[in-house]
Please model this.
Amino acid sequence: MSAKGSTNKGFRVSVDAMGGDFAPEEIVKGAIDAARELDAEVILVGIEADIEKELKKHDISGIAVRIVGAKEVIRDGQEAAFEVFRRPDNSASVAARLVKDGEADAVVSAGNTGAVMVSAMQHLGMMPGLDRPMVGGAFLGLSPQTVVLDLGAVVGAQPYHMVNFAVAGTVYVRSFMGIDNPTVGLLNVGAEEGKGNETAKEAYPLLQKSGLNFIGNVEGVDIPLGRANVIVCDGFVGNILVKFCEGLGKRVSGWLRDELNADVSQKRLEDVSERLYNLMSPGVALGGGPMWGVNGVACVAHGSSKAPQIVGTIRQAKQAIESGFVGRLRGELERIQGLTGEQ
Amino acid sequence: MSAKGSTNKGFRVSVDAMGGDFAPEEIVKGAIDAARELDAEVILVGIEADIEKELKKHDISGIAVRIVGAKEVIRDGQEAAFEVFRRPDNSASVAARLVKDGEADAVVSAGNTGAVMVSAMQHLGMMPGLDRPMVGGAFLGLSPQTVVLDLGAVVGAQPYHMVNFAVAGTVYVRSFMGIDNPTVGLLNVGAEEGKGNETAKEAYPLLQKSGLNFIGNVEGVDIPLGRANVIVCDGFVGNILVKFCEGLGKRVSGWLRDELNADVSQKRLEDVSERLYNLMSPGVALGGGPMWGVNGVACVAHGSSKAPQIVGTIRQAKQAIESGFVGRLRGELERIQGLTGEQ
Model:
C-alpha cells in the first residue's frame, strides 16, 4: 500500500460522510469521536462544503482528520448498481476507491447498502469463488455469540452459498469473538437431516464435509437461545428475520412502557424499554459490520446510525484489520474451493 | 350427515384425547370444559381405560361426553404419513373418521401435526386445486388482526400456492374477525415489485389479478406492526418465524424478570412477563386453529396445549362450522381456479 497522504496513525479509515439518515451531522461527529477514541486517521468523503460546516462544530485539535471531495450522493431507494456506474463520483465509490489506492485501510458507510456493495465489489474485487459479498452479524443482542448470515445480500442462495456463509461466519466468530472452533447450524424447519426445502437438503451434506464444526439443522427457536455460534440461511430468510425483530422490538418496548407506567418511575422505564429495544433491534445493537467476501475491509452501518453506531462500526473495521480477517477468510475460502463443485 | 350416536347438541366435536404433551389429562379436562362452556357434544377418542380414568376426576353431569376407542397413538418425531397408513386405528385417524362418518362436525387434535394432516387428507379429502392443507393464524398476539400463512405445512411453495394462502387467509379473516375486505401482503425483502426470490417475483402478478385486496410486498417489520390482515409466505419462512418468536418470547420475558426484579413486586412481575410471553409466543397465544383446505373442519392445537388451549381450539372449530368457513373457502378456491395456471 502506498503511503500517499497518510499520517503516522496505525489505522486509516475512509468514511462516507454523506450516507445515512443522519448524514452528514452524525457521521462526522462519529468519525471525530472514533479518530480520538481509536487513535485513527479519518478521511471524510463527500460534499466538501457540507463536511467543513460540520467540522467547525467540533474541536479537532490533535486528531488526524481530512476531507476528500465527492460530488454525488446515492440515496436509499435508488437503484444502486445502475447509479454507481452512472455517477462514479458518488461518496460511497470515492470512499471505497481510497482503500484500493492505498490511502485508507478500510471504508465505512451508512449509505445505500447496494451502493456500498457495488462500490466495494468494483474497487476491491471479490474473493475467489464468490459472486457477491455476504452480510451477517450477531443480530440479536440477546444472543451475542450467535452470528446469522446471510442477512439480505444473497437472496435465492444456492447450496454452495450456504457453505460460504458458514466459512465466513466461522472466520468472523474466530476473529471477533475469540472462539476457536465455532459451532455451525443450518437454519431449517426441523432438526432431522432430510427436512426442509431443496436448498437446505442439498446444503446439509456439503456442510458435513466442509471441515467446519457443523452441528446439523437448527430451528428458529435456536437463534434467540444461541444454540450455535454461526447460523446460516438464505438472505431472503435472514432479511425478513432482521426486519421482523426490528418491528417486534418497537412493539414490545412500547407495550412495556404502557404496561408498567404505574409501577416504575418514568426515567427507569425509559431506560429499561430502550435497552430492551436495543437488545432486540439488530441495526441499533449491531452498529454495523464488515461486508464479507470483498478483498478488503468494507463495513456497512445501519442507515439509522448516529455517532455512537458510527464509532462502533469504525471499531469493527479496525478490529477486522488487526485480526487479519480478510486474509483468514480468503484462506478458508480457498481451502473449501472445489468441495462444493459449483465454484 | 347421519345422526348415529348424536345427541341434541348443535355442535359435535371429536377430540384426539391421546395427542399432545399433556395428554390425556389436560386434553380430557379441556374437552369437558368446552362441552359445558360451548354447549357441545364431545367425543373423546383414544385408549378407553386411560380416558375413563381421567373422566372419573371430573363432574360430568349434564354434559354430553362419550368415548370412542382407538388402539394406537402416533407420537411426535415419528414419520407421520407412514405411521398413519401402517396403524389406521390410531387416535388421530379414528377422530378424523368420525367426521367423515357424520358422527362429529369437527375434529380437534394436539398430536403429531403430520399425523393429523394425513388423517384429515385421507378421511375428509382435499378441496379442488389443492395438493396439501395449509396452516396459518394470527401468530403474534401483539398484532391480533394479522394472519400469516403458511406456517410450515407447505415447504417449498410455488407461486400458485401463495395465491391459495391469500385466498385461505382472506376467508379466515372474513369468517373469524368480521373484516369484510382484508388486505393481503406478500412477505418479501423490499417494498417494490420485482424484489425477492423467484417465487415472490412470480407470485406478485398472480396476486395482483386474484381479485383479492392485494396491497403489494410487505417486509418483516410489517408483521409486528400489523400492516396487512393476511401476510403470505413459504411455509419454510413461516415456520422459522413462528419458532423464532417462541424462543424470543422466552428470552425477553426472562430478561424482564431479571431486570425488574428490584423494581416491581414478584407477583406483578410474574404476571407481566407471562402476559408478554403469551403475546409473543404463538402456540400459547393461539391455542390452535383450522387446517385449511381439507373438506371439513380439522383443527390443530399446539403440542404444549393445556386445558384452556384445548377449549380455545374447540371454540375455533365451532366458529368454523357456524361461519360456514369450509364452504366459503371452497367457493373462493373454485373462483380462482385456472387463474394461476398450475392447478
In short: The mean pLDDT of chain B is 91. The longest strand of chain B covers residues 40-46. The longest helix of chain B spans residues 235-259.
